Amino acid sequence: MKKILIVGATSAIACACARLWAADRSELFLVGRDRQKLQQTCADLQARGAGAVTAYVMDAADITAHSLMYETCLATLQTVDICLIAYGSLPNQRACEQSVEQALEQFANNGTSQIALLTLLANRMAVQRHGTLAVISSIAGDRGRPSNYLYGAAKAAVSTFCEGMRARLFKSGVHLVTIKPGFVDTPMTRGLALPALLVAQPATVARRIVAGINRQAAVLYVPGFWGLIMWLVRAIPQPLFKRLNL
Where does 3-241 sit in CATH, by number? Predict the structure, then answer.
């Protein structure tokens, strides 16, 4: 039985992961902004056999709230075996191009607030000398594309930060997994013109995430074929790449 902290617990991918952990009777500490959705998620997981489920309301973009949240989590679970960071937003690229305020707000939500949370969690987990940190980044961070480069830049920052932190934490017995989903059928992506063959379901993505955490993967593309796709995208020469409508 594992003790698991999930930040952004009401997101579709996080919920799907939590259901798999609930089936193993894990104890879950769920953090989210929406109290009603959080309570619904707790009830669902308890019905699926979770050992214990605790809800904690917090806006993860508020970095001043992180410390109290983690102290409460430790008081509840005593220790953390797995922490999944699964929150974020998909900004309107055009709006971010026109507004410095929106650009910085979205970068903070998808980038700097996650870096702040990772720093806190890493320091605390390094003291206990065990556990796994898992953070949902994105394939969008692998190369800046004109359609979403603000979001991509934030995720690139998170991915690069995690690469360095993973090497640091290795010496403390703590592992860090960087998760890079492609297109997933979630409320965040609905309404976008996405190629149907490349869109995965949250349950499929969750199974790969949980398996990747169990085997202590370093970087996890979900589904796996996105690793090859993004290798090809990164290989496109810049003179050609800037002419593509990506």
Answer: 3.40.50.720
